[in-house]
Amino acid sequence: ADTIKIGFNIPLTGDNPDVGASSKNAAQMYLKKNPNVTVGGKSYALKFIYDDNEYKAESAVKVSTKLITEEGVLGIIGPQSSSQAVPAGEVANNFATPMISPWSTNPNTTLDRPYVFRGCFLDPFQGPVAANFATDELGAKKAAVLYDIAADYPKGLAEFFKEAFEKIHGPGSVVAFESFTTGDKDFSAQMTNIMMSGADVLFTPQYYSEVPLIVRAAKEMGWNKPILGSDSWGSGDLMGLCGDDCKGYYFSTHYAAAGAKGETKAFIDEYSATYGKTPDDVAALTWDSLGLMIQAIKDTGGLSGDIKADRTKVKDALAAIKNFPGITGGMTFTPDGDPKKCAVVVQINQDGQFAFHKSVCPK
Amino acid sequence: MTFNFLMQNLINALQWGSFYALIALGYSMVYSILMLFNFAHGDIFMVGAYIGLGVSLGLLSLFGSGAAAILPGWLLLVLTILISMFLTAFVGIIVERVGYRPLREAPRASAAITGLMIGIILETGNILFLGGQRLKFPQLIESVTYNVGGVYVTNKKIMIVLVSIGLMLALHQLITRTKWGMAMRAMAYDYVVVPLVGVPMNTIAAMTFAIGSALAAAAGILFGLAYPVLDPYMGVSFGWKAFVAAILGGRGSIMGACIAGFMLGFIEIMTVPAIMIINRLFSLNIGSNLRDLIAYSIVLVILIFRPHGLFGQAYSAKLRL
Amino acid sequence: MLLNVENLRVSYGNIKALHGISFTIDAGEIVTIIGANGAGKSTTLRAISRMVPVETGTTMTCMGKDLLQFPADKVVSQLGVTHVPEGRRLFGNLSVMENLQLATFARKDRDNVKKDIRRVFEIFPRLEERKAQASGTMSGGEQQMLAIGRAFMSGRRLMLLDEPSMGLSPLLMMNVFQALKEINKQEGTAILLVEQNARLALKFSQKGYVLETGNLVLEGDSQTLINDPEVKKAYLGG
Amino acid sequence: MPLLHVTDMSHNFGGLQAVSEYNLSLDPGQITGLIGPNGAGKTTIFNLITGIYRPTRGSVRFDGEELVGKKPNETAAMGLARTFQEMKLWRHMTVLDHIKMARYSKLSYGLLGAFLDTPRRRREEREATDLAMEVLKMFAVDQFADQLVVNLPYGAQRRVEMARAMVIQPKVLLLDEPTVGMTPDEMMAMIEVVRQAHERFNLAIFLIEHRLKVVHELCQHVQALVFGQVLVEGTPNEVQNHPKVIEAYIGEQEVEF
Amino acid sequence: MEETLAPQQNGLKYRLGLFFKPVPLLAYLIGFLACALWELLVGDGLTSILGLPKMPVLFGLLTIFKVLAGVVNLAIKGEAFNWATLVHIPTALIYLFVIYLIPLAVVARATAKPANVLARFLHGFPLIVTALVQLGLMYAVLHIWAGVSDYRLITLKLTLIAVLFTLSLNIINGYMGEFSCSHPGFMAVGAYMSSLFTVGLFTSDKVLGEAVFTFSAAYLSFPLALVFGGAMASLAALIVAIPSFKTRGDYLAIISLAFLFIVKSFFENVQALGGSRGIAGQPDWATLPVIFITVAFGVWTINNFVTSTMGKALNAVRDDETAAEAMTVNTRKTKMSAFLFGAFWAGVAGGLLAHVLRYINPAMFSVQKLAEVLAMVYFGGLNSVYGSIVGAVSISLLGEALRPLEILKWIVIPLLLILVMIYRPTGLIAFKEFDVRQVFGPKEVD
Ligand SMILES: Nc1ncnc2c1ncn2[C@@H]1O[C@H](COP(=O)(O)OP(=O)(O)OP(=O)(O)O)[C@@H](O)[C@H]1O
Ligand SMILES: Nc1ncnc2c1ncn2[C@@H]1O[C@H](COP(=O)(O)OP(=O)(O)OP(=O)(O)O)[C@@H](O)[C@H]1O
Ligand SMILES: CC(C)C[C@H](N)C(=O)O
Ligand SMILES: [Mg+2]
Ligand SMILES: [Mg+2]
């Protein structure tokens, strides 16, 4: 039978191997469920190729090139993180191959790149969501931010948050804007500054692995005010690492696992049954991005066999998708290739579940 | 703000410095005795932390935790530390046997490369066996925060600082007062003739690695208590920074390595409040993100003015080629 | 017979340094090996102290025990065979005292150690003056004394001395040789001496061997060798 | 005026007075010997003259120019070549490269020439090679030109070291125990080599030796150094028979070297 | 005095060596050219005849490891494995033999005589003539070879850059014998500064603003950008070079490591250069010919330097600094030139890298990069141009070929390196002089 190949440009080693593992898990689950796809009346076997980008930009470029020119994939899923997605997107666009980054929230990933799409909202959207939430629901007038300056995503989001918060409360209302560097484990110096600043809330758009350390440092310094996080908190492992320390805090994210319904619940149940843990954002977004890609392939109405022409067709079909029913929300792409998606704010409840608190949708 | 603020940071710096000191100590053991860069040391620290994790989980399941505990937490902690130090010592011995002994005659830099590679293997092995996700280190003892006049101190911080100072003093005695220490220093100077005075060289080398690795394990467990998230790459930056501290302290000086470790921790932590104070004083707006830049510029300047480290003597040895 | 070496063969990679030499040393005896540069003298000593591997076919026994069964450090600590290498090779970062103490690493007889150190200081009073000095900063002669003292501390059934006179002033050289003779007499230590200064070495010893490019070409008691015209021509400067 | 003129030079290491009030005047073509017990400060004097250490006090003049404060490569380039007691050779370099290296200060092609392989560089390198081969022949080590020095017999290594110093085309040659570790035969050969070099280039030589035979054969003038101070100086015979020298250095017994 | 053991006179290796002894580089190049053309002609056909899924791009290694990876996954994770793919191992080998090894051997051996004649003829002219001819031929081979697949092309480009980078580090770590950790920092400076030049001046960009100049021949300024990057890297190298007068060995190693941390932190913090987000959108100027010429030029100048007496002073300083000084060597100038020169080429390599990837960020120039380049230097061999070429090429290719092994790759590569270090502690081809005349010249057989 003919095959359709989809490439995965994901980090299986390097700083965040679990991100790659989640993506691969979701993909394998998808493949098991849908081993074949029918396009224009013809059945194709799906084939996924996972390539390791080592969580490095340089490698991500090589992997993209390899997937496109070597493996002859029809489209690429990934990279997950913006620091790889930005350079890899350039390659995909140059080779006119559709690429969907499930998780990259940096605007530059898709900007001016017709072939590059993403499966999530953007930081310029998420930043204000968090700022508004802090203002409206937490009653904060002064905010502190703690972020990793060396990582693309936290830094971007921290800046968007600051901008949005100061727009509401005036310049200087972000009273502490503290940073550290990737790999740092000790946040006591920054926390001491934050304690002194008199902030009402701490916003920290950090990876779930750093959150427990930050929360702990805060508590050890006597911090008893709210802490607000972002989509990077939303890993199934957060609670395993953080334990009771994180309970009661809020974060904005792509979907709320606890109390999910319908398709989303089905996905969560099946994933949990297969891999023994709740799917995190990456898994859910990878699943959706894969769904988008397959949908677009189907929408082409038939493949010619000429891979170059087919890629363009897939891209056009992707751009034309309307209201794709993803498990993380409905998706329609803007001309830039970004979906208009609602963000969810979840609270970590006393059972350690990410409980849906509210949903914020773009206007 | 000022006094409390400074005290608080000082205490933070002490704890952070303890880790650098402990790890630099182990690094410096191997370094000053075999004159080898043990670039795998950071990863042995990681392995030590994971072994500590395994041991403590094992002990907890044996003796129960929380209300059902048969033994008090501190005892479990002591047991965990001792058992893990013992087990990690073997990792060190294996690393020496496989990666360093065959290279004793080789250029030192080649051994540095083997060290790097062993480090990568340890990291990758961890991912292979444990799947790469972060693991939580169990909190064997209840964390208690004391508020001393507005300065927050936890019992763990105190313990960590004391344990590392204790280990450092013990090791210093070992190196300067005992025959073993003498043999280690002799080996640093000229390993070829060590057997000629009746000293079993391989035993000394293995011992050195064993002690260094055991120290790394102790550091790993204390680290797990203070920062309970373990990941396979947690040793990498520690490894390089211990390298900085070990040499900054001065070649062959165990004490020096330790003090340099504290100093490095101190510089790293204190630049943040220092920047803040400077900002206030001169109403500037320098970000605390310049920390690494400033901290390592200080290291660089120290070395320019003290080209042989803080406590090292001048020497003209070069890489053994 | 203290040491019996038969068919000793050593090579460094492709270079054959010793082609199967045989010799013996009796207890308390002073034996010298003379030969040109590169003849293989140092290699012989290194082979006995197990610093270089020997080739198959070699047998070496010390007091009836198979020497090849002992690793380098056990040759010192269990057989009492010590080697003062070419160029002294002290532990320059250790003090004089530490150098001496380290040499007793494997010794169990703590009381005797103190006595022995006192003995070394008697033979070389200069060392006692410099007890705490880092040995690396001492002058060549002082270092040579310490090297002998160190060997004395670690075992003294047989001392292997590699060019102890190298770089020493005439007076000091005499002192060193006197001290060696004294140790030999009082402790019954056998000495295997390697020297460029053949005349001195032969005068000092009872038995001599002449080594030429890895082969023993001549042996006999030292007095005979000194008067041998061949030896005279080749090694005693005419 | 003497070629090398040292006046009241002193030096100490920490508390140790290694050299005190040392004086030397060496005329062109003169060979002066320096003897003394181990640790007397002989090698230190060499190091002070050549600029490896900077004397605490005193002056060193060479050809009328002050040397104190100059770096070793500068004093060497001025014509002050030396060998080392422990023979400092470069393990990974061939014999030919050793000799050519001593031409460093005479090369004028500059870094750009080195990077770009200019004709000038090629010419200068060729000239250096030719000169080096000539010198190697003179010291009878030309057959080793392409070998690494570590593979050479000991005596040949000594001669390479000497050849290397000679390529600088020095006016003064400082030799630190050139015959140490040699058999009597090799020692005689070395004496011959030194003598030839001396005669051919009218070199001034300053020589440290423990073997009195070498001193006798070569030197017109000898200094005996004890504890950093010159005890006696004069002709070899005068010095050797001086009771103080016998007491401190030679000893009573009749020894041959 | 010394007897050398006679080499074995009858081994296969010996006889093969004898057979190929008279083959000059020129003939090998002709052979490779034949292979590349042959592949162009029959590669696709042979691929389908052999039933290979895709034309093997890295000499079949990738294909073979893909199959092996399948087996491994089956063994350790029980993942499904298509046994039919096992046949790809022999077929990939057949491909390797039919397309490369056999034609190469046959053509190279067959043209040995005329090639020798030609090489001897060219040898009569100044070196530059034969160098240009042979490099031109080499470029043609690479061009045709890489023309087959863009993956080959990017692998080749990055490999060439790695060669330059490795060699530039070998100057300091191998020839001068210091353990310098600052090289990724130099590379970063070069990458950023050349990007500043090209992106800042000629491209409209969010970080660096509108293009200052726009004209169609802007790419002609690329060499200038590279030189600018290299020069700035040299300038930055002063920070490491000056302390090297006073200190050596391990202390210098951490000075250079501190430098690396500082550079990384600097670029993370300078928002005008994109901060941690980096700079994207470098113009696509680093084409294969540009890289080839730059790398060839770099290798040439580095080789010139290390074979000159000026450059050999590095060895003298390494083996015994006191003796070097006593022999008139200006050790300051020597150290300084080594650092600045090494940094210059590292900077140029950085500039090329930035324009191949067309994206840079500070995280790329971390200690990981350091570990990588150190591995290449020490694997290939210290103090050797050959060594660096071999080290960079083999580790780069291996890194790609082992990709299918996924995470196991990071067990296999380190193990391999450890083995090399144990059995050849100074690297595969250490302390070997690269004599250009001899390499390009005819092979005279007696
Ligand atoms: N480590 C080594 N590697 C290779 N060859 C060596 C080594 N050591 C010695 N040799 C060679 O072995 C031979 C014998 O050397 P050895 O040192 O035993 O001579 P020797 O008689 O002690 O000479 P010397 O009087 O110079 O000390 C020489 O040819 C020497 O070059
Ligand atoms: N760098 C140094 N630091 C401290 N002390 C030193 C140093 N160099 C030499 N000395 C001391 O200075 C004294 C003179 O040493 P020097 O090497 O000049 O002696 P020498 O006359 O050459 O002896 P030998 O004949 O043994 O070579 C010795 O006591 C030595 O220990
Ligand atoms: C950490 C994740 C939330 C990924 C992040 N959105 C990025 O752009 O890198
Ligand atoms: Mg010898
Ligand atoms: Mg001396």
TrEMBL record, chain B:
It comes from the Bacteria. It is found in: Cell membrane. The chain crosses the membrane at residues 20-40, 47-68, 74-95, 107-130, 158-175, 204-227, 257-281, 293-311. One of its GO terms (cellular component) is plasma membrane. One of its GO terms (biological process) is L-isoleucine import across plasma membrane. Its main location: membrane. Pfam families: BPD_transp_2. Keywords: Amino-acid transport, Cell inner membrane, Cell membrane, Membrane, Transmembrane, Transmembrane helix, Transport. GO terms for molecular function: L-isoleucine transmembrane transporter activity; L-leucine transmembrane transporter activity; L-phenylalanine transmembrane transporter activity; L-valine transmembrane transporter activity. PANTHER family: BRANCHED-CHAIN AMINO ACID TRANSPORT SYSTEM PERMEASE PROTEIN LIVH (PTHR11795), HIGH-AFFINITY BRANCHED-CHAIN AMINO ACID TRANSPORT SYSTEM PERMEASE PROTEIN LIVH (PTHR11795:SF371). Belongs to the binding-protein-dependent transport system permease family. LivHM subfamily. This is Branched-chain amino acid ABC transporter permease. It comes from Desulfosarcina widdelii. The lineage of its organism: Bacteria, Pseudomonadati, Thermodesulfobacteriota, Desulfobacteria, Desulfobacterales.
From TrEMBL, chain C:
Pfam families: ABC_tran. One of its GO terms (biological process) is L-amino acid transport. InterPro entries: AAA+_ATPase (IPR003593), ABC_transporter-like_ATP-bd (IPR003439), ABC_transporter-like_CS (IPR017871), BCAA_Transport_ATP-bd_LivF (IPR052156), P-loop_NTPase (IPR027417). The keyword Methyltransferase does not apply. It comes from the Bacteria. Belongs to the ABC transporter superfamily. This is ABC transporter ATP-binding protein.
UniProtKB/TrEMBL annotation, chain D:
PROSITE patterns: ABC_TRANSPORTER_2. GO terms for cellular component: plasma membrane. It comes from the Bacteria. Keywords: ATP-binding, Nucleotide-binding, Transport. The keyword Transport applies. Pfam families: ABC_tran (PF00005), BCA_ABC_TP_C (PF12399). Coiled coil: none annotated. One of its GO terms (biological process) is L-isoleucine import across plasma membrane. GO terms for molecular function: ATP binding; ATP hydrolysis activity; L-isoleucine transmembrane transporter activity; L-phenylalanine transmembrane transporter activity; L-valine transmembrane transporter activity. Residues 4-252 form the ABC transporter domain. This is ABC transporter ATP-binding protein.
TrEMBL record, chain E:
One of its GO terms (molecular function) is branched-chain amino acid transmembrane transporter activity. CDD domains: TM_PBP1_LivM_like. It comes from Desulfosarcina widdelii. The keyword Zinc-finger does not apply. Its main location: membrane. InterPro entries: ABC_transp_permease, LivM-like. The lineage of its organism: Bacteria, Pseudomonadati, Thermodesulfobacteriota, Desulfobacteria, Desulfobacterales. It is found in: Cell membrane. This is Branched-chain amino acid ABC transporter permease. Pfam families: BPD_transp_2 (PF02653). The keyword Electron transport does not apply. The chain crosses the membrane at residues 25-43, 55-76, 88-112, 124-145, 151-172, 184-202, 222-242, 249-267, 287-306, 337-357, 377-398, 410-431. It is a multi-pass membrane protein. Keywords: Cell membrane, Membrane, Transmembrane, Transmembrane helix. One of its GO terms (cellular component) is plasma membrane.
